[in-house]
Amino acid sequence: MKRQLPAAGRTADLHPFPMELPDLPVEELRVRLGRERVYKLSFNENPYGPSPAVARALQEAAATFHLYPDAYGRALCAQMAAFYGLSPEQFLLGNGADEVINLVAMAFLDPGDRVLIPSPTFGAYGAAARLAGAVPVTVPLKDYRIDLDLVAAAVTAGTKMIFLCNPNNPTGTAFPAAALASFLNRLPEGVLVVVDEAYNEYTDDPASYTALSLLDAHPHLLVIRTFSKIYGLAAARVGYLMGSAELIRQVHRVRPPFNVGAPGQVAALAAFGDRVYVDRMREQNSRQRRWLTEKLTALGWRVVPGQANFLLVDTGRDGREAFTRLAEQGIIVRPCHGFQLPTCLRITIGRPEENAALVQALEGENTRGSG
């Protein structure tokens, strides 16, 4: 019998991505549930898809897809730099925000470094830290919010990096840039702060919540964004990193060439250029977020006030009960046991008809439960 090759010790606590019901593609959900109509409200995707400009751009560029892409995505970086008032050298593209998170960890973390991570939050930060041999140190949320005072108090001599998700996943809560500026001013030199703004464009006022205005004053600050959310390009896998040109150069040292393919670059370029569409997506999401908050509150659930394209709701009992009932009716949400929030559900804000179906299903359950 051949001896099994042992995995690296730093990966002992890592696990493959689970493929549970909320994680399955819609096509597979239809088969699994035996239903043609399935509403998937578990992945925080843009239910309207990308700008129509994306399909046109991809069709025009398809004849060149036999060629390797620009290794740095310079056209896309230049377009974003002009919009944000930065230089193209302050941008780096990744295969989704997930790869960007891993690249940042590889570039700056050494074994044994402490990485502060508010909890619960997006799981990729802890995984990236462990992959680099660093030590994730969680800081509890306060009333579903990241408490920057608690995070600052947790900083020690061994702290090398801090991940902040703003708005936070899975709670949807956000802190303003002014609070972040005060927090940054209290940190010792040598602590790198990484702010993940995947959902920033969904906030009521993106400019007041972004860390971008703080980059010049804080050279140890990095900002991550993605095209997977409001731009509707989750399948294209395009994320990006912003920071000082020096920090970006350090991350480029560990970035593989051609990590973002030509289709993704073309799609992102077209999507980013359609600002009217982005504004429309924000407005539609905000309207539906207010409507859904009102309806879910009326059901007796606590709805955490959020700024993203999803809502965290506390059902007051095991969240898997409501999850199972909804799944039986073809509506998939995310139970939050994996976030250590066992009574909660995270619900993506869908199209009006999807949100109405969700509320109708829950109201029907309440009626049957009280009969």
From TrEMBL:
Residues 38-362 form the Aminotransferase class I/classII large domain. Pathway: Amino-acid biosynthesis; L-histidine biosynthesis; L-histidine from 5-phospho-alpha-D-ribose 1-diphosphate: step 7/9. CDD domains: AAT_like. Pfam families: Aminotran_1_2. GO terms for biological process: L-histidine biosynthetic process. The keyword 4Fe-4S does not apply. PANTHER family: HISTIDINOL-PHOSPHATE AMINOTRANSFERASE, HISTIDINOL-PHOSPHATE AMINOTRANSFERASE 2. Homodimer. Belongs to the class-II pyridoxal-phosphate-dependent aminotransferase family. Histidinol-phosphate aminotransferase subfamily. This is Histidinol-phosphate aminotransferase. The lineage of its organism: Bacteria, Bacillati, Bacillota, Clostridia, Eubacteriales.
